[in-house]
Design a protein that fits this description.
Strand content: 25-35%
CATH topology of the largest domain: Umud Fragment, subunit A
Helix content: 10-25%
Shape: elongated
CATH superfamily of the largest domain: Umud Fragment, subunit A
CATH class of the largest domain: Mainly Beta
Structural class: alpha+beta
CATH architecture of the largest domain: Ribbon
Number of strands: 12
Largest sheet: 8 strands, antiparallel
C-alpha cells in the first residue's frame, strides 16, 4: 500500500471520527434541551380552540417558571389535579389571592370584567358559576372554547406544583408555525 493510500485512509478515519463526535454532541444537546428546557406536546381535544386545535403539535417551555411568575393569559400545561397521570392545557385567568366569578359566560376577576379577546362570543357557554377564591400557589384555568372545556369551573383551581410548562410555539401543522406569545 502506497503512502498516498495510507494518507487517504488516515484522512477518512479522522473525518469519520469528527463526524461521529459531532453527531454524538448533537444528540446529547438535543436530549438536554428536550428533557430540561423544551418538550414537544400534542394538543388533544378542542378546549383551546380557536388558538390551539386538536392534534396540533407545540413546544412547551419547562424552565420558564423557575425565573418568572405565571401570568394571567399564559397557556399552561399541567397534571390534571383529579388524575395526575393525565395532562391538560388551559389558559390562566385567575391568580393567587383573586376571586374569580363566571356570570353568563363572562369572567370577572375581583368583580371586574376580564378582557378576553382570544374567546369568540360563539365559544362562550353563557353559564354562571359561584365565585371562587384562588388560594395561594393555585391558579384558576379555563379553556378558550368554554362550551367544550373541562376546567376550573368544574374541578377547581390548579396547585402550582402540577404546572410543568408554558406553551410557547406551534410547530405543526406548518401553516400554523409560530409563537404563541
Amino acid at each position: 500500500m502506497g503512502d498516498e493510500a495510507k494518507n487517504q485512509m488516515r484522512r477518512r478515519f479522522f473525518e469519520t471520527r469528527y463526524w461521529l463526535r459531532d453527531l454524538i454532541l448533537s444528540v446529547l444537546l438535543a436530549f438536554i434541551v428536550i428533557v430540561f428546557l423544551y418538550q414537544p406536546v400534542q394538543v388533544e381535544g378542542t378546549s383551546m380552540e380557536p388558538r390551539l386545535a386538536n392534534h396540533e403539535r407545540i413546544f412547551i417551555n419547562k424552565f420558564v417558571y423557575r425565573f418568572e411568575p405565571i401570568r394571567r393569559g399564559d397557556i399552561v400545561v399541567f397534571w390534571y389535579p383529579l388524575d395526575p397521570s393525565k395532562s391538560y392545557i388551559k389558559r390562566v385567568v385567575g391568580l393567587p389571592g383573586e376571586t374569580v366569578t363566571v356570570r353568563d359566560g363572562r369572567v370577572l376577576v375581583d368583580g371586574k370584567p376580564l378582557a378576553e379577546p382570544y374567546v369568540p362570543a360563539s365559544y362562550l357557554d353563557h353559564q354562571s358559576y359561584s365565585p371562587v377564591y384562588v388560594e395561594p400557589n393555585h391558579y384558576y384555568v379555563l379553556g378558550d372554547h368554554r362550551d367544550s372545556s373541562n376546567d376550573s369551573r368544574v374541578w377547581g383551581t390548579v396547585d402550582r406544583k402540577y404546572i410543568y410548562g408554558k406553551a410557547v410555539f406551534i410547530y405543526w401543522p406548518f401553516s400554523e408555525f409560530g409563537s404563541l406569545e
